[in-house]
Amino acid sequence: MTTRLAARDCNVLGLSVLPVPGGVVDEIVVNTPADCAPADLVSDLRAEGGRCVAITRADLHHLVDHTTAALRAAGAALQDPATTAEAVRLLLGADSVVPADAETDRADDGGHRAVVALSEGTTLVARRGWAPFTEVELARVGAFGEVLRPNHDTATAVITRTGAGIVLRTGTPTDAEAVADLHARCSARTLFTRYHAGLRTLPRRWLHRLLQPPRGTTLLALCGAEVVAIAQLIRTADPAEAEISVLVEDGWQRQGLGTAMIDRLAALARAAGHDRMVAWCLPAEAGFARAATASGLPVAIRREDDVLRVALTVRAAVTADRDQVTSIPTQK
């Protein structure tokens, strides 16, 4: 394989070999010239007996050994628990990592699905299409979970522009009354902006779906025991895209709370394998677009059928330079 890569003027920057039943999985990081097509690399590797070949663009994080990568992932997760799922995704090279309660398919998928228990009541499900997870990788992520176990609380504190302390955490069914009270305190205008309907109080039958959406995650903002904002990240039919929504109580608006929740949703979206988040807003609704812009994420707004489509890019595209860095996982 290296001889064929050298013939195409490719420079091998890194190689990892992971044993699996019946063979090994190699991950080769190479620097390729501009005229080297991914299809040519796939053909060369298959000609040497490689199978399950996949190619993805790599960044500098791929140019370090796995021990360094694991330490960096653990450090990021300890510093900000909101990035734990994204750290697990990077550590395993997974396509997506989502909370276990958001997982609908419980099939093992021949080793392409891994369950990561981080602490009691906190479990993530990782999926990878190009190759099954190896025993070495599962042991590595198991050790990662042991490091994080003392820090199992995934709540994050943020400070508003007025200096108030707010806690962001995922919602649970026990928050039903607090979420109902939030909606009761919101003005009719704020509720109409969020639901695009003449809603004055929240129907009780909606509470369970709000707090445990079948295809996503609900995020709450709390001041003490009082819920002052709620946001959701919902998977769509397009794997690259997730739909989001944010509701902030009237008295807490324009304090940076919406932006903080969008930042947290972006971390969850990246970990779930999404490239962008999309929100649908009324043309006169400037609050969400303002909060989205303040998040620092690339924002694109266009009008569709009398509503605004606000798209936020959460996974940066890699620009094509003359020399490309490519990561090639292949099983043989």
TrEMBL record:
Pfam families: Acetyltransf_1 (PF00583)
Coiled coil: none
Keyword 4Fe-4S: no
Keywords associated with the record: Acyltransferase, Transferase
Domain N-acetyltransferase: 166-321
Keyword Transferase belongs to the record: yes
Superkingdom, taxonomy of origin: Bacteria
Alphabetized InterPro entries for the sequence: Acyl_CoA_acyltransferase (IPR016181), Bact_Acetyltransf (IPR050832), GNAT_dom (IPR000182)
The protein's name in its UniProt record: Acetyltransferase (GNAT) family protein
Lineage per the UniProt record: Bacteria, Bacillati, Actinomycetota, Actinomycetes, Pseudonocardiales
